Automatic annotation (TrEMBL):
Family label: Belongs to the ADIPOR family.
Pfam families registered for this protein in UniProt: HlyIII
Protein name from the UniProt record: Membrane progestin receptor epsilon
An MF annotation (GO) of this entry: metal ion binding
Amino acid sequence: MWSLPLFRYTDVPPRVTENFILSGYRFPDYSLLQCMVSAFRPTNETGNFWTHFLPIFIFGFHFIEIFQWDGAPGPGEPFFYPAWNYFFGVFYLLLASSMAHLLNSMSLIIREICFFVDYGTISAYTVGSSLAYYYYIHPQAGIPKTGFGTLNVSQMQAESAQEPPSTPSSNSSFFPFHFHQFFDSLYIPCSCLVAIICVLTCCNTRQQWRKYRYAVRTLVFLLPFFISSTPIFYRLLSPSPYPPSSQTPSSYPSPTMASFFYRHCFWLVVSAAFNISKIPERLSPGRFDIWGHSHQWFHCCTFLSILDELHMIKVEIQALLLHPSLEMAPTMTTQLPGPTICSTFGLMLLLQGCIASIIIYFGWCAYQIYGPVQKSLKAH
């Protein structure tokens, strides 16, 4: 048996960190089986695991609804490529985070790599969100005139003829024309670049800037939020592109996207507050060691924000299916090209390759730092 006391797998040595969780830590060098079993035992990571693992199934249940709508194309049609990228981004985020919390006691080096992967999946998720925003909320978004399923070209043209044409107006859009060019050529590249910067920064907080690591990690993800949400800001500050004369019960009400987005933002703010403040365990150290500490509430609020984001994307997808030909602003003369495998899955694979390279580099650095420590632990 171990002759050492319970080893606290914190990011920094005890002399420079404030520990508000006083018990429930696991022994170092758990085997894989011991880590799996610990998911059903009371430790300070048990709640962290389940608050990200169970939401995978909740998210999947709400996601598959989009394939059951009337007039929706098949799940493998190009129209749903961005949705699938968003799904995989969220799926890998929740799975990687839950596994990181479950397996991080196998060794100091594995712990570091687990959370490097966690940061990488967060960044990949933001790009998956950007792809969904780009093809479903973009000011030129629409269904390409290629036909799919029950919604063919003739039906699109018939619906287009029934919808009233847009009337040019000087104030039809809050944004100037050159701002639209940002969407066309720079929006996705900027999202990818910012995602890579976030991975680099967050991984670096595990080796530098330790004292302010939680604040840095929280603030650094504000940048991809603002970049990714640009199409939403456009829609909130511009007239709805959908026909105001549509009175069908399932038609798109313009406040719906806004309400889901505001709730999405609200949960993000609350999750950031929990992550930085370390409340409630800061107020009563030792009382919330197993259940109810801030990181569990951070997980819950983060998932609620993702769920509201999914609902926001779903109402936009449904609106596109109901109105394949949208009322474009006078400056918007062409429709956005449809998604392709290269522009969606190919882009995500390229991004994942870049993120994997970053993780390998920081993993090697972690081995140089913690390798000697790990050997000394095994010597005991």
